[in-house]
Amino acid sequence: MDYSVYLFDFDYTLANSERGIVACYRHVLDKHGYTGVSDYDICRTIGHTLVDSFEMLCGEKDRAKLELYRSEYGKKADEIMVDNTFLYPQAVPALEALKARGRTNGIISTKLRSRIMGTLERYNIVPLVDIIIGGEDVTSPKPDPEGVLAAMARLGADKSGVLYIGDSLVDAGTAKNAGVDFAAVLTGTTTAREFDGFPCVRLMKDLGELI
Prior knowledge:
Blueprint: E1 5-8, E2 15-16, H1 18-31, H2 39-44, H3 50-58, H4 63-80, E3 86-87, H5 91-100, E4 104-108, H6 113-122, E5 131-133, H7 146-155, E6 162-166, H8 169-178, E7 181-185, E8 202-204
Parallel strand pairs: 1-4, 1-6, 4-5, 6-7, 7-8
Antiparallel strand pairs: 2-3
Helix pairs in contact: 1-4, 3-4
């Protein structure tokens, strides 16, 4: 399994930001009286947009309220997210090995690019990542292929030479919609069986199996 471009999801693929994400959701949910949402429920929404996640968690349909919740989440995330985001032990070795082979590394995520950069800077690995497409860089979030296609266009990459790696069905759908190969990693909340409906060139326990 060798490609010229390796594009990664971020949350639950390269990094575990569960602590920060749950705390930000709790901040908003508690404030607005949503007491029946478990941490597991929250974690299962990771990878979706904030507005979609709040709709799933709260059953709220009012767009103005959902935008308010998104805004409140964002303000809390500005305070705590980077300090509560931790790269998986296998992430840096995988990125280093790919760079050593002359491959291109990218990140395509619904997470804000600024927050991803904050984590890369905290771990001093900015040079290992060639391109980041975050939530603020697209008009249509995953599983729409806009982010992947934008990265490919900027890199001059052909679909046959691109692998997208992610932990969720949103990621699997993104790769399928972009027409690129997909490798699943089981470091999130999605089980191996849940990926059965999508073509995966590889199903990995963690990124240590990528190289």
